[in-house]
Amino acid sequence: MSDFENQQIRRMDRPVSEFTDKVVEVKRVSKKTKGGNQIHFTALVVTGDKKSRVGVGLGKAKSVADAIQKAINKGRKSMLNLNIINGTIGGSITLKHKGAIILIRPGKQGSGLIAGGSVRSVVELGGIKDIVSKIIGSKTKSINVWATIKALSQLQK
Description:
By secondary structure, the chain is α+β, with helices and mostly antiparallel strands. The chain folds into two domains: 3-80, 2-Layer Sandwich (Double Stranded RNA Binding Domain); 82-156, Ribosomal Protein S5, domain 2, CATH 3.30.230. 32% of the residues lie in helices and 38% in strands. The chain has four helices and eight strands. The protein has helices at residues 3-13, 64-77, 117-126, 141-156, and strands spanning 20-33, 36-48, 53-61, 80-81, 93-97, 100-106, 113-114, 131-137. The strands form two sheets. It has a four-stranded antiparallel sheet. Helix 3 (117-126) crosses helix 4 (141-156). The longest helix is centred in the C-terminal third of the chain and has 16 residues, at 141-156.
């Protein structure tokens, strides 16, 4: 058997996950110490099953791959169940989280995802098909993702 065939067999042995993961942001963090610079990485990952569950995780480690894996595990532990009605959310919400103000409204059938990058990743992996959103204030991806999760959790109550 060639190396390529061995790789294909190893990939088939792994169980296929029901969740889809999307890396939103990876940051390199440096800390000054007596011995020199200590470099770490933080990764923000959105995890969802594209049906009604979505979660966000933040992982920190000395390598990018470890940080992403930690973020995926945290995201799967902090899942949020969404109320999806005909491919959209139940009502509109305006929420302020730190520097971001987020407006989320249900969209008309077939209108699609009208949302910015960070909101789009959360909503898309949550399984929502039609939504209109606007972020005012913060341009930071991580703040916008957490604001979206907080707004969607407020709709549950």
